[in-house]
TrEMBL record:
Stored Pfam families: TgpA_N (PF11992), Transglut_core (PF01841)
Identification of the protein by name: Transglutaminase
Source species taxonomy: Bacteria, Bacillati, Actinomycetota, Actinomycetes, Streptosporangiales
Keyword field: Membrane, Transmembrane, Transmembrane helix
Source organism per UniProt: Actinomadura soli
Domain (Transglutaminase-like) ranges: 484-554
Length: 830
């Protein structure tokens, strides 16, 4: 068993191969497994307890690591010393930093090799303890499975089917060895023998070689077939399920990218709901900045593709050279140093945030300092990770904030060809009404800036739009037309997507950015961003300034509460623009497309701008991206499982009292108003009252309920005490008031009469039921809050009943299995 436990651990460790560039880690793990196995053998030879076996395994692992990685600082080169242990700690810390710096496969540095050997050794310690010392081979598969979870969580491709098969066979071999030793420990196998054939008269007797051999070949063959079939199903089924194997069945599809990995996420306009906590007004992150003015927005995504019904970003092909590695990021396109200034922001994301694989950073980031494997898309400057999440992390961002003037934007030259080709593309199926509307709104504009400002003012002032979080997210091109021409109700997604599309129709390079507004300032230089600050906005490109933010979404009480309109787009500053600028029209002199409707009215206040309230949240989950249905189903399942003991306790209580309710018998059908068991001469009303319930049954039910309540609240219950002694001890323990003492005494007296005197209880069932409720309240008042919640949610009386039920079901299953095992022998005998 010691040998098989070590082999199973080594077979399971093969699944770690995708994490490393070379195979040196395996030999370090082999040494750790051998050291742990030797220490386990020594502990068992000395017949030490299981806990000491665990300590021996850990000590053997420490001696091995000390000998291999810190022998220079150890006593006599082998015995751990404070210096050698400190060296192991420093080496582990350097390995941890290196593991966070590199993406898989990582180089086998000394620190990484030490961490790998220690991890494999710890698994070997647990497997040796469970399978060899405690003779529990099946639970030993859990630590073996834990090694597979590491590459499955780190790498998109997971583990190959061959490595999984090797580990599975190692675990099966461990189970077979354990079964063989357990059976062999009882001595020689007792089994049925093959029936001896009697030769015919005059025939030569056949040699009876096999008559003394047990007939176990059929069972052995069946066991092997079941094991092989289980491994085959575990390997083949996941490989055949669509979506589980991105490289095709058995990894034969390939990606042809030469080490490049494709970054895939759900639709960002929907997946932001997954990356934020679902609670309204919950804090997402906090940050400090040295920006003397109001900080700029924090951008997560830059959506550069419009597919006719939604915005998304071009597929990111991540390469190892895209890692941050404390280097300066590529320069932002079109942004000159003269029209920008440097800003430093220190961000801390709350630990409650989940799966934030894109970093919220101010545009345009020039340097990002964060631990882990984070990468940059050189075209959009989005910061993302293939394996890490931003939850609970703190990082520093140095960015270049654009400070354009009206004159600079108005005098911007022609756009570069690559910018025009990529950021002005519009699908052919865009409705003609939208194209005509864009031209009508901006008619008479002399510059690109004038067109952009007119579009923004049309959405926020003169177009008659209303900010409404309950509006459904656009899913088809017709939804966009309905928003622009008919309903004119929506939230930031519709406003940003529509303005960016109309800008492209006019030939202005545009994209949709998504992230958070600057949030709220809680003290000088310190800001808080909440879930309601999630936002989407358009960015338009101007040569010399680069990507510039616009704000078509209504802000303030009638819109996105923390949105801010850029100064370079305000009407009062634009009117006096520099050369080539155009004075902006007032709301009453709007373009022909303006309908002259009323000003936007408040329809949603202080809500998450991604539409997470009302119908928008439900509609957003149907946009083809992230769906909350599986998570909600899982949460409901967990809640149902947690509610089983409480529900069973409630059901048991009601069933006990419901059993006392009389059911109409034959007598009640022949004589209206009478009940079975009526005494001669009694009135029908008296008969009904007398037969309302069994007095002894009511006493027993009250006593059982009080016992269950005492156990649920953690009070001692002595089965050997009489009812009177139990009531006396509980009364002294609880220090009951007069009402509680009387209730306890009535319950004990009723049980005493029903148990010993075999006479009717003087108390009616309704009184006993009320007494049980009074005593239960006294139990709850005598214990702490934790005990009260445990009594409600996980009552021990029900847990014991559940365990007995499961144990009984397990025994019946074992009996059924034994009968199935005996079935072949019975059939042969027949």
């Amino acid at each position: 068993m010691t040998v098989m436990a070590g082999l199973a651990t080594l077979a399971g460790s093969i699944g770690l191969y995708p994490l490393f560039e070379s195979g040196g880690w395996f030999w370090a793990g082999l040494g750790a497994v051998l050291a742990v196995a030797g220490a386990g053998v020594l502990a068992r030879r000395l017949r030490l307890p299981a806990v000491v076996n665990l300590l021996f395994g850990l000590a053997g692992l420490l001696l091995y690591l000390n000998l291999v990685y810190a022998s220079d600082a150890a006593w006599l080169g082998t015995i751990p010393s404070p210096e050698s242990v400190g060296h192991l700690g420093d080496l582990s810390e350097s390995g941890w930093r290196a593991a966070n710096r590199y993406a898989a496969p990582v180089p086998v540095l000394p620190g990484i090799e030490l961490m790998t050997a220690a991890g494999i050794g710890l698994v070997a310690v647990l497997v040796d303890l469970l399978a060899v010392r405690m003779r529990r081979a099946a639970p030993a598969g859990l630590p073996l499975l834990a090694m597979y979870s590491v590459p499955a969580a780190v790498r998109e491709d997971g583990v190959s089917w061959l490595a999984f098969g090797v580990g599975a066979l190692g675990f099966l071999a461990l189970l077979m060895a354990d079964a063989r030793e357990q059976v062999g420990g009882w001595g020689r196998t007792v089994s049925s023998f093959r029936q001896r054939e009697v030769p015919l008269a005059g025939a030569d007797p056949r040699p009876d070689e096999g008559s003394a051999l047990p007939d176990a070949a059929a069972l052995v063959a069946s066991g092997r077939r079941i094991a092989a079939g289980a491994v085959a199903i575990a390997v083949l089924v996941p490989a055949a399920v669509p979506g589980l194997q991105p490289r095709g069945m058995f990894g034969l599809g390939g990606d042809g990218n030469g080490g490049t990995q494709t970054v895939t996420t759900p639709d960002p306009l929907v997946s932001l709901k997954r990356e934020l906590t679902r609670l309204d007004d919950s804090v997402v992150l906090t940050y400090r900045t040295n920006d003397p003015e109001a900080p700029d927005y924090l951008r997560l995504y830059a959506l550069d593709k419009f597919e006719g019904d939604r915005w998304t970003y071009t597929q990111l092909d991540s390469h190892p050279r895209d890692r941050l590695d404390e280097r300066e990021l590529p320069p932002p396109p079109g942004l000159s140093v003269a029209s920008s200034r440097e800003v430093t922001t220190r961000v801390r994301v709350r630990p409650e945030v989940r799966d934030m694989s894109f970093l919220p950073v101010p545009y345009a980031p020039s340097e990002v300092s964060i631990s882990g494997d984070w990468r940059v898309d050189t075209r959009s400057l989005m910061i993302y990770s293939l394996r890490d999440s931003a939850d609970g992390r703190a990082y520093t961002v140095t960015s270049r904030r654009a400070e354009p003037t009206i004159g600079q934007l108005a005098a911007a030259g022609n756009h570069p060809a690559d910018i025009v080709s990529r950021y002005t593309a519009v699908p052919k199926n865009v409705p003609r009404e939208v194209k005509q509307l864009a031209e009508q709104v901006t008619a008479g504009s002399a510059t690109t800036l004038a067109q952009a400002v007119r579009l923004q003012r049309w959405f926020t002032l003169s177009g008659g739009f209303t900010y409404d979080l309950s509006a459904p997210a656009p899913k088809h091109g017709s939804d966009l037309v309905d928003f622009l021409l008919h309903s004119k109700r929506g939230y930031c997604e519709q406003f940003a997507a529509s303005m960016a599309l109309m800008a492209r129709i006019l030939g202005i390079p545009s994209r949709v950015a998504m992230g958070y507004t600057s949030g709220s300032e809680v003290r000088p230089g310190q800001w808080v961003v909440r879930s309601r600050d999630a936002h989407a906005w358009p960015e338009l490109y101007f040569e010399g300034t680069g990507w510039v933010r616009f704000e078509p979404t209504p802000s303030g009480a009638g819109g996105q509460g923390t949105a801010a309109t850029p100064e370079y787009t305000l009407p009062e500053t634009t009117g006096g623009g520099g050369e080539g600028s155009e004075s902006e029209p007032a709301p009453e002199s709007s373009s022909p497309a303006d309908n002259g409707g009323p000003a936007p009215q408040p329809s949603a206040r202080g809500r998450n701008d991604t539409g997470e309230t009302g119908g928008a949240a439900a509609q957003g989950d149907e946009d083809g991206g992230f769906s909350a249905a599986p998570w909600l189903a899982g949460a409901v399942l967990v809640l149902l499982l947690l509610a089983v003991p409480m529900a069973l306790r409630t059901f048991t209580r009601r069933r006990r009292w419901a059993a006392l309710i009389p059911r109409p018998g034959p007598a009640s059908r022949t004589r209206p108003g009478a009940r079975a068991g009526a005494r001669p001469g009694s009135s029908p009303g008296a008969v009904v009252r007398a037969a309302a319930a069994d007095p002894a049954g009511a006493a027993h039910a009250a006593w059982r309920e009080m016992r269950a309540d005492a156990l649920d609240h953690g009070l001692e219950w002595r089965a050997s005490d009489s009812p009177r002694a139990t009531a006396r001890r509980l009364g002294e323990l609880l220090e009951l008031d007069a009402e509680g003492a009387q209730a306890l005494a009535r319950i004990a007296r009723a049980e005493e009469l029903a148990r010993y005197a075999l006479s009717r209880s003087p108390e009616p069932p309704e009184r006993l039921r009320a007494d049980v409720r009074t005593v239960r309240e006294a139990f709850a008042a005598s214990v702490g809050r934790g005990a009260r919640w445990r009594a409600r949610l996980l009552p021990p009386s029900t847990m014991a009943q559940t365990w007995d039920t499961l144990q009984s079901a397990g025994n019946r299953a074992l009996d059924a299995t034994a009968r199935l095992n005996e079935l072949p022998a019975r059939l042969r005998r027949k």
